[in-house]
Amino acid sequence: MTVRRRVLSTSALSPPTLALLCLALLGCAHGVNGGDEPGSGIRFLSDDFAGALEQARAEGKPLFVDAWAPWCHSCVSMKSYVFPDGVLSPVAGRYVWLEVDTEKPANRAFVEQFPAEALPTLLVIDPRTGQAVRRWVGSATAVELAARLRSTALALTPGAPGTPAQAALARASAADTNGDHAGATGAYRDALDASVPRSLDHGQAVEGLVLRLSQDGDPGSCVQLAREELGHVAPGTALATLVATGLSCALELPEDDPRRQGALGALEARVAALARDPSVVLMSDDRSSLFETEEGARRARGDLAGARETAIRWAAFLEHEAGRATTPEARAVFDAHRLSAYLALGEPERAVPMLEQSVRDFPTDYNPPARLAMAYLAMRDPWNALEQARRASSLVYGPRTLRVLLIRAEAEARVGDSHAAQVTLAKAERFVSELPPAHRNASMQTAIATKRKALFEPPTASRTMP
User: Fold this and answer.
1) Which residue range is the domain that position 92 belongs to?
2) Residues 210 and 82 reside in one and the same domain
3) What is the pLDDT of residues 290-349, one digit of tens each?
4) CA–CA dist 77, 16 (Å, integer)
5) Which pTM was predicted?
6) Domain match, 224 and 270 both
């Protein structure tokens, strides 16, 4: 469910930490099984789209691509908890598997050809055409992903009967990949009309459409779809995406918009119910996102007591899940959301021990020190924040560098070194101006201007999210 927007994403941006270490030391957690059951047997090629496509053509198999980034905790959750799962073993041999770190300069050509507005973005590419025939934004359980991949492999088998819904999903995926948002919206609606409610195809159509409407800045249509489809999507990731995205869209509507008031109660109740219902199988990362969405909605409505109650539940859930993790990588999946929950509670100091552990466990990963700097800033300890921000600055790469520079500038300003903060913000501006178009977004300059205003105009409260 959870999607992490590429540019300055916050929690769902909301958000997961091991990726650099995974690649450097473990050969990638894609191939590591965290439980006692047999693993999936999946072996990912890394950051070699041309080679993977050539192999897929030679073997006559579709190419599965995991487009991810090290800061995306949903991406890291998929690596630790989904891709190694033995449930995927029956489809392991039906695909060629590729992971692409979208932040790496070496992958620029791939990112330009297959732009990802949010992460993770999962693609199935037909090697005969080089075109995406399925595109899923956000995470999924192993069972859900296996079902999607079986269906897609069958649809791509020569001579196999397809369905109108599957054909529409293929058109929507191609249009989305090519930046044709209107075409994607129309194709998702076609898939919706052609599919049976509560079916796999219907859930994929709803999920794709609600995210498309949200990302295109159409909160009214997003809310309408969420309310219309509440009873037509089977419990699982697609339903969680629908209600959480619909609730976020409702909060974007003007307060006097009748659609806002009509949707808030129903959608918030469904979000809360899904978060607390253990019979609905979801990734723990996605269940956490439901708690986060509920907490944010209650806070936005002015229900501070309710928001705190949700945050307490949220933090307890995350601590339980992290406590069950069998590897440091699996535990660190929850770092970003735990920090968010502790910030929501006004207790950032609770994040320090876990983040210090992650700094020790993953010395080449910029995420733990960056998050630790944010915790120290919230604790009004700018000197420790600056130390960690400098550490993160020495490790970070790609577009996420901007986020780290903004954290560093804030720490510099808070210790009283305004000159250093201005220099860092100027560096951030140069960095953004030099980014390739596929990685650059107008919101980046807005973020720099907002940070400069917060630091050098009359003080205002500031809360930074991981």
Assistant:
1) 1-162
2) no
3) 999 999 999 999 999 999 999 999 999 999 999 999 999 999 999 999 999 999 999 999
4) 6
5) 0.90
6) yes
